[in-house]
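WARN no homologs supplied; continuing
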Amino acid sequence: MNYTLNQLKIFLQVAESQSITKAAEELFLTQPAVSIQLKNFQKQFSIPLTEVVGRQLYVTDFGNKIAEAAEKILKEVDAITYESMTYEKLLAGKLKISVASTGKYVMPYFLSGFINEHRGIDLIMDVTNKTLVVKSLENNEVDFALVSTIPKDLDAYQLPLLQNKLYFIGSTIYKSKRKKGIREILKKYPLLFREPGSATRNSMEDFIKKKDILISKKVELTSNEAIKQAVIAGLGYSIMPLIGISDALKNGEIEIIPIRGLPIVSMWNLIWLKSKKLSPVANGLLEYLKAEKERIRNEKFSWYEDYS
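OK structure emitted
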């Protein structure tokens, strides 16, 4: 047999994704490139690794065994790389962070300098809703999580990074409605919500409940980007984080409608379990952030911090 580490990596991702398309997205490769490597890898085995039923790709029992072996091999290769860099006195290893969806506009700016300084660090950043972010932290699947609200029963340390501000927004095609209050607007137009488990949705529902606002119609979408595009198109109004709509504000596609009690202000916190023994890489990130977070805020988010 003459398979390559690249083929092992691609097959493992296909096995985990159960999809060539999704595997290609995760690996930043084209779908044909993944298909070719998967085909070349399969040629080295007389037993099928995958099968297609209908339009769905499935990994065979034999394929799952090969995927398990591939995962072990790739971990050993990573260990060799990290050991080599450690002997060279370089910071090396994996850094895993789970980020609440809006945090994708925040966390990369606090990571880029650190990651670029230490070439031996492999970053894995999962972007999902708050419920799954907290779950991954509790299950010890990640080193850190970035959230805007910290569960009261979570025994964790926190490092504040940036304010999170939520405003009531609408499309600029509704400029004639800008002088109306939120109650009048939502009697006629839908309010766009994130899915259950989202911190943004929880904040919206708390605000609406406290203000006793009647919602005529709700529309649920599963990402802030989807909500932003729906607002731009005039599908309805929403309460959204400022950090995710800056481009639409600059382009004049969205406007912020002044509402008493808004913005809702919280804080983006990097959190980690008190019981977790942090790796040298994780400790290195903390030291970097404590020293550099103010500079990063001033350089990258001055427009955002000053917005009121």
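The chain has a mean pLDDT of 90.
OK
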